[in-house]
Here is the input.
Amino acid sequence: MTDSQEMRRTRALAASLANADDASIWRWFSVLLEERRIRWCLAGDRWIVSVDNTHAGTDKSFDLAIRLAKQNVEKRAPKVPKTPKRQSESARGLNAAASA
Here is the structure.
């Protein structure tokens, strides 16, 4: 593969990844917007973004403020508790016998 082919391939991959990332961010944004959970305002020269009435991101660029807000909200999201492991056949038998 020549250098120019490699460069075209790299650019195409980068564009594809950027498009996927953009789609993810704006799907997240649109869900929060529909649920009325996201707010933003321009204060001076910076966009301030809040999610669920909590500051989530600030930047001079609206796009970057939204991206930062998503990143921060996902960091502070509560962890989903692990589901308990299923008991083995023998443990279920022992528990049933003990409760009988």
